[in-house]
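Reminder: ligand-aware prediction takes two inputs, not one.
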Amino acid sequence: MTAPLQPHAATSQSLSDYVAEMRPRIESSLRRHLPLTPAQFETPYNEALEYALFPGGKRLRPVLTLLGAELVGGRAEEVLDAAVAVEFIHTSSLVFDDLPCMDDARERRGREPLHRRYGDGVAILVALGLLNAAYGIVLDAAPSEPGRARRAHAEIVECIGPRGMVGGQAIDLAGARAAGSGEFDATRNLKTSALIRLAVSLGAILCGADARQLGALARVAELLGNAYQIRDDLHDLDEDSVTPASTHDADHTLGRERIGSQVAEVKRLLAREFDEGPAAARLRELADFIARHRA
Ligand code: GRG
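Here is what comes back for the chain with geranylgeranyl diphosphate:
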């Protein structure tokens, strides 16, 4: 089951309040943009679409889109539609990833994956419908600033493409693990970090971020993706009863140190490249949240 996006109250009240305020707006925007087939088409597609999106998960990525906008001086309301596009892409990737030809998942968010309930064909159509809708939404996302919409569109193409989610999934499918260089192997979590980058960048692009800010956000996203991945690995380690206790403890200590250094760099970058304000503070809290939780 997915945990609600609620950081520890003692340290993270402002993010938790923010999420509580924004989540209903995100939910109603998702509903407004649902790519439904006409009612007279008597197919299971619309029901399957509903199943894919609701009740949904933590909605972490749309929150990142709103924060990306605010970080560069924009307003969350301006990018609610783009946040929907990001959640559509995320949902589409989960539906694809769960298919028998991919990860062949048995469970998603505590229940059977979409394709197990509605069949592979309907699942593929739902995933394509969501992806298609996402491109359309972003084209219309900044009517008075067509240049921004074009850049946002290009960012989606880059994120989903061969150097992003599709490339990351291809690595997974091949069972290949490119050799890690330095502290962390960035190709290992390409499919995760590409979408985190898209989420945070899209809001910023649509609110006029400059190239330097976008470069900093791309690095923030990469670090958040790394922290997420290491956290995931630690969780797997905890569930692995074969690893001897001494190795488990040493690996755990190393993993925690690595998470700490990714999160510390996120915070340093935010402080150096952006004005201090509520959005930067919430992104810091979100970094701590990602480091603590697993899907
Ligand atoms: C064409 C969009 C597209 C993708 C094709 C299938 C594929 C390539 C990529 C798979 C990407 C994937 C499933 C990455 C894993 C991402 C991940 C960490 C999911 C869990 O995220 P949470 O915990 O999920 O935020 P919730 O349930 O909260 O939404």
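The radius of gyration is 19 Å. The CA atoms of residues 139 and 149 lie 6 Å apart. We will return to this case in the review session.
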